Structure formats: structure tokens, C-alpha cells
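User: Sequence in, structure out. Go.
Assistant: Echoing your sequence, followed by the C-alpha cells.
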Amino acid sequence: MFDALSERIQQTFRKLAGKGRLSEADVKAALRDVRMALLEADVNFRVVKDFTDRVGQRAIGEEVLRSLTPAQMVVKIVNEEMVALLGEPARLDLGGKPPVVLMLVGLQGSGKTTMAAKLGVFLRKNGHRPLLVAADVYRPAAIQQLETLGREVDIPVHSEGDRVAPPQICRNAVARATREGYDVVLLDTAGRLQIDERMMTELEQIRQQTKPREVLLVVDAMTGQEAVAVADEFHKRVSITGLLLTKVDGDARGGAALSVRAVTGVPIKFMGVGEKASDLEPFHPDRLASRILGMGDVLTLIERAEAAMSQADAAALEKKMRTASFTLEDFTEQLKTVRRMGSLSELLGMIPGLQQAGREIPEDVTERGLVVTEAIINSMTRAERRDPRIINASRKRRIARGSGTSVQEVNQLLRQFTQMQQMMKKMQSGRGMRSLMPWMR
């Protein structure tokens, strides 16, 4: 989502890095570039002004201008102020006597229903028994959509059709949760194409009758500055306690994420980062600021890896790599693990120093490469996957036909796999990483 903003800000920092010492004019010129980058990213203009004013006051101080690495000091200040702009990390408030009610509100099309299912999956992973509630009786097929999602993620859905008033549906759902032992109730309330009096009155009734612990506003990251006005109006009427950003993986310019928190004072709690039910991340301001400034996000990368691979699988893989018994079957499993973690360009963007490489690799190219590699390996027999040395010319032609690729592509994969095995043998022999990476000498 922040690719354009990140690239512009990093260009500004590269200009500063080329200067041995910074003058006040250099800092002001850099801040002008940062200001333009934020405005082009659709960040609220008041937020931009406050942010650049704070950075400017700190960056033009004696400490920065006399520093031996002034450019690094400016980056540090921008990072700290961006983290402050995004607010403190906030978690769901699940305290109190169960069932705890979480009420999701927002405009139609913001992604409330999908977000309800994602939250349900997240809560179940953390030891809770959630109940989804279909309280949107106005949007065609909204109830069926939540029921379908509930079946897909194996979470029960409370629905009563479209003839019962939403406040009554929500009260009945809370009563059912109390009877049947569900400890969290997720209310998927109705949205409209725009805020209207009837919508707000209904939400106020639901809030009054179900006493939700959290009122969570679902904000579409694609809406830009409009999201600020929407959040402000909802906050005035139903006192929202948290924000959930959806479609963060899309082509949004990022203005909503950087603006809504600053304008409303309400913390962002989660980000939807994909279409799958598991594509939900707790919001970490420091990690997001690091991504924007090109510092990577190694912690999120590690968390995704841990979610995609169990400890037992990781231990088994480590043993195979250590003993050089890694096969093409294992390689296929690792490809699947990588694809569960996200797109290759996104993962590269989380590694410090590789953000630019991630942006330069087209998404369709990286995805095609993984698909082609998997197709080639799947076209091999089990014996060939376990011992590629038996693959002769006729076998290569058969594998290429079966995978819809060329013999050259099969040769390329086998060559890369052989190189990988040689690296593992060098590691096993104890020659160390320097023997594997001569550029470190």
C-alpha cells in the first residue's frame, strides 16, 4: 500500500546521505519533499503540517546539524515522529464477564463482513470461542455471505433472516452465546453507501442494548481522506474504540492509515493484508513506520514464517539441511510455505535493504516462477524427486511436456537445486559461511 510514499521518502533520504554535513537549507528542502510525498499519498493536510513542523523543529537543532551522520539523525527523527503519528500499539479489550461483545461498524463496501470472519479466526487461534452475528438485513446476500464465510472457517453464525430487526437479532445472539458458552460475540452490523440518520440511530440502539466492549470501525484503506470524515462522524455518534483497516494489500496510497489515527485519536488495532481468512495482522506502528522508511519489517516476517510452519516441521527441515538430505519433495513443501506467507515481492519488502528489489520484481513474474517450479517438480516421479541425478534427457523431455514448460526450464531448476545441495554440503563440512559467500572476503 505504501510503495509510492516509501519510494519518495527514501529518495529524499538518499539525497541527504550524499552530503557530508547538512545545512538548515538542506533540511528544509528535504522536509518539502517529505511534505509533498505525504500529500500525494492522500494524508490529511493538517496531519501533514503538524508532522513536518514537529520534524523540522527537531531536525534543525544543533545536535543534528553538528552530527557526524546528520542524514541518519534526520531518518531517526522522521521514524520516531511517524511512530508517534500512528499511535501506541493497541490490543482488543476482551476483559469483563463473557460473552464479550465486539461491534463492527462502517460504510457499505468497507469489508465489515470479511473482517468479522478474519477476527473470528484470529480469536479462535488465541483460545476463544467466537460467535459471528449476521445483523446486516439490508444489503442483498449479506447474511448468506457471512454464513458462507462461517462455514469456510468453521465458526458458527447466528442469523435470523431479514425480517427481524437488527437490535433484536443482536440481543438474541448474546443470549445464545451465554447459553452455549461462546465467549466472544462479533456483530456484523449494516452499512450504507453514505452515513444517514436511520443507520446511526440503529447502531446506537444496538450499542445500548448489547453493551459492546469494543466498537470497531472498519475503514477501507482505498478511500483516502474520505475515511477521516467517516471515522469522525462514527466516533461522534457511537464512540468507536478502535479502527480496523481493510484492503491494505491493494493500491491505496496510505493516507487513511496515517490520517485517521491522528484526527480521531482512536487507535488502529488490525490491518487486513489479503483476501484469505488468515490475512489479518495486529497493527504495530513501529513496524509500519519501518516499512515506509525502507528499514524492513523482520519481526512480521518471522511471525508469518512461524504461522506458516510448525516447530516440528522447522526442526525436520533444519536437520535435512544440516545433513544435506534435502530433496525436491522438501523443496516443493518450502515453496508452498513461502506462498502461504505472502507474495515474494511483499516478503522481500520486509527485509532491510531489499525493498527496492521487491518493488522492481513484477508480481506476475514472481508468482509465475513459483507456479512453474512447482509444476515441474510435480511432473516428476517420486524417485526423480528424491534423486534428481537419475533424470536423463528423455526424462527431462517427459517432465517438460507434463508441466507445460521447456527442457531449458527443467535444466535451470535442476542446476539451481544442485547448487543448493552443494551449499548445504559445504555447510555440513564446516567450511563456514565465508566459503559460501566469497564476496564477504
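User: And one key feature?
Assistant: The longest strand covers residues 214-220.
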